[in-house]
Amino acid sequence: EEPAATIVERLKDVATYEGEDAVFECRLSRETAQDAQWFLGDVPLQSNEMNEIRVQGTRHSLILRKVTLEDCGSISFKVGQHSSAA
């Protein structure tokens, strides 16, 4: 059983203007096959035309495209027992 990844670089708050992209990033202690999930409020996010979810090694990023006022809220990233929010 592999040790669980932990979050070593936490999410930072992002302020942006309507119509712009918002980028959130965090870094894990190691690459993991464990399920990592992004949330807007309580809603799990998927990669689609509005959201881009990227994983590059230990860096996980979320890009919210052309944000609107409805996108305002808490973004969180969870992996295993660990989470970070902005």
Topology:
Layout: E1 7-9, E2 22-28, E3 36-40, E4 43-44, E5 51-56, E6 59-64, E7 75-79, E8 82-85
**Shape label:** elongated
CATH homologous group name: Immunoglobulins
CATH class type: Mainly Beta
Low-confidence stretches: none
Quickly give the CATH architecture: Sandwich
Oligomeric nature of the chains: single chain
Strand fraction: 35-45%
Structural class: mainly beta
Strand arrangement within the widest β-sheet reads 1-2-6-5
What is the β-strand count? 8
Share of helix, binned:
under 10%
Rg over C-alpha atoms, rounded to the nearest angstrom:
13 Å
- Calculate the terminal CA-CA distance, rounded to whole Å: 31 Å
Q: The CATH topology is what?
A: Immunoglobulin-like
User: What's the mean pLDDT score?
Assistant: 92
- State the order of secondary-structure elements, H for helix, E for strand: EEEEEEEE
| Total helical elements | 0
Largest sheet: 4 strands, antiparallel
Count of spatially separate domains? 1
Care to describe what's here?
The chain is mainly β. The protein has one domain (7-85): Immunoglobulin-like. Helices cover 0% and strands 44% of the residues. The protein has no helices and 8 strands. It has strands at 7-9, 22-28, 36-40, 43-44, 51-56, 59-64, 75-79, 82-85. The chain has a 4-stranded antiparallel beta sheet, with no helix packed on it. A 4-stranded antiparallel beta sheet has the order 4-3-7-8, with no helix packed on it. It is elongated. The termini are far apart. The mean pLDDT is 92. Pfam families: I-set. InterPro entries: Ig-like_dom (IPR007110), Ig-like_dom_sf (IPR036179), Ig-like_fold (IPR013783), Ig_I-set (IPR013098), Obscurin/Obscurin-like_Reg (IPR052385).
